[in-house]
Protein 1
Amino acid sequence: ETGVTQSPTHLIKTRGQQVTLRCSSQSGHNTVSWYQQALGQGPQFIFQYYREEENGRGNFPPRFSGLQFPNYSSELNVNALELDDSALYLCASSLGPQETQYFGPGTRLLVL
Amino acid sequence: EDKVVQSPLSLVVHEGDTVTLNCSYEVTNFRSLLWYKQEKKAPTFLFMLTSSGIEKKSGRLSSILDKKELFSILNITATQTGDSAVYLCAVRGYQKVTFGTGTKLQVIP
């Protein structure tokens, strides 16, 4: 059984650019959640996808968007990057929306 | 707005000590409370609690939930240097998970 994987591990972008982060869920998991974790803070919930549909969203603007594919992998897209978007982006997968979430290693994004 | 507050923010103990980490919450449509350990990047799952008063144990770690007073504690007995990490408490509502800021635990030999 493979765990949750994310790519890339690190990324540097400039303000105004767009970025796509990727997540492969653990085998058998149909739910993926995305989190933003700033330095010294707890993860902040961005949104959750369940069977390819958005199933909950935190307080993030529309320039944060996502997709889930038929194989349950997922993408997080962020448009018009701002300096404050610099953070660790974590993906977590689970057997269902209310089940235990297992986290990937994260993508560290730096916006200059 | 949903809120999760952890205390203390940081803690330094000696190996062999027992520690208690606290988590209080205000969440609409509570479903479960989760504890995670974060060492470098990925938080690793420790416990999920849904019912009051039932202690969950895993080795030297244990946790309990009080849904009436809206808090949970995580106990670590006989601490080891490998327990040094940030411990995160999260509460799941209907379609959202809210994390606390975490408690940074440092265990010194």
Protein 2
Amino acid sequence: DGGITQSPKYLFRKEGQNVTLSCEQNLNHDAMYWYRQDPGQGLRLIYYSQIVNDFQKGDIAEGYSVSREKKESFPLTVTSAQKNPTAFYLCASSITGDNTYEQYFGPGTRLTVT
Amino acid sequence: GESVGLHLPTLSVQEGDNSIINCAYSNSASDYFIWYKQESGKGPQFIIDIRSNMDKRQGQRVTVLLNKTVKHLSLQIAATQPGDSAVYFCAECYDKIIFGKGTRLHILP
């Protein structure tokens, strides 16, 4: 089965702690993306990567960090500097990063920080 | 505000009727458009796409219409079923992809 997976589905953390969200794809896609989804808002781009060992900030990168050491994996760390981290986080991948092909989304991770 | 949006935040449709969900986009340079379906607590699921050199594309029970003159995109779902209940949102693509906020489709029994 080809697809994109995210784990865990639900994550709870105390304020001040860093937390890493996992995203793995076996679609052999070059590009991967992290979005944040808040109620009543469209998806907002946090970071994206068009190729291994390279990534760029999206529209709301502050307080987040990523790495792309392997083509299949694009973990997102939500740091303690992120002022409002509670949200639904979505990872996506695409054949290429030039926005000419659809993005495939994972099931999402709901992060709650208290 | 966002350049891609939907005219109605919630649409209620009788089961068996056709549903039409609308989307306006603002960038005339956008050349690729996608409709996604998102069920509660899940990731968005690709439904259908259309490129700017087309004005209509059909899938299984779904049709996307593109009107470049007025920068309007619509998703038509034929014979709406309870399983169609979800949030539907469009995306426009040029050098970046912008997602709309979504329309919630509610199926009446």
